[in-house]
Amino acid sequence: MLLPPDFFSHPDVVAIARELLGKKLVTRIDGVVTSGIICETEAYAGVTDRASHAFGGRRTARTEVMYGPCGTAYVYLCYGMHSLFNIVTNEAGIPHAVLIRGIIPVEGKEIMLRRAGKEKITREFGIGPGKVSKILGIHYSHSGMLLGGIGTSADQPAIWVEDTEEKIYPKIIQAGPRIGVAYAGDDALLPYRFSFPR
User: Fold this and answer.
1) At what angle do helices 129-136 and 109-116 cross, to 10 degrees?
2) Residue 82: partners with Cβ closer than 8 Å, 6 or more residues away
3) N or C: which end of the chain has fewer CB within 10 A?
4) Which of 27, 96, 28, 23 is nearest to 66 (CA)?
5) Within 10 Å of residue 147's Cβ, how many Cβ atoms?
6) Distance between CA 123 and CA 10 in Å, rounded?
7) What domains can you pick out in the chain, each with its CATH number?
8) What span, in angstroms and rounded, lies between the C-alpha atoms of 130 and 12?
9) Gyration radius of the chain over CA positions
10) CB 76: neighbour CB atoms within 10 A?
């Protein structure tokens, strides 16, 4: 079942990052469906968060997407080669976002292996935000796309999140500092990264 838009409208981006664990991220790229269970996320709290691209109210051609409606894909290019997929949250004008850092492959595993240039799926296959986008076929050109999938034609790219019966009990969720944001000073130490044992 598709997650309703109001799932992403909650004002607490940290809570959304936790609640996304166990949900299924699905893509339809070039008519091919691939998916994975979300197992690692990071929250970015907008203008007050030094680790956020929107810290201090920064607005650029790239980050303008973050100020749009919740449930929008914010995909940016990292190091000139990796597309990193985020979901915009909160209400329009408040640039909160959740980075999807890891998935457990479910559908379209052969396609994922081909995209990654790998022969087998290992424990770490879908772990790392660059890997997530690569194996699901997400590209930075998809930034600004509203999450959905219902009612779009089969040959158009689509990204959506589904609810699942996966139960992630609070006691197994691990929280810790985000990765690669040392420039953010004290904000780099905030426990905004969430995962569960695979």
Assistant:
1) 120
2) 129, 130, 133, 134
3) N
4) 96
5) 21
6) 32
7) 5-165+173-195 (3.10.300.10)
8) 25
9) 16
10) 17
**In tens digits, what is the pLDDT along the chain, a chain of 198 residues?**
899 888 999 999 999 999 999 999 999 998 999 999 999 999 999 999 999 999 999 999 999 999 999 999 999 999 888 999 999 999 999 999 999 999 999 999 999 999 999 999 999 999 999 999 999 999 999 999 999 866 667 778 899 999 998 888 889 999 999 999 999 999 999 999 999 988
The position carrying tokens 């664990």 is 21
No. of helices (H) and no. of strands (E), the chain = 3, 8
Residue indicated by tokens 């292996």: 113
CA–CA separation, 69 and 90 (whole Å): 8
**What are the structure tokens assigned to 116, written together?**
């990654």
CA 193 to chain centre: 12
d(CA 77, CA 75): 7
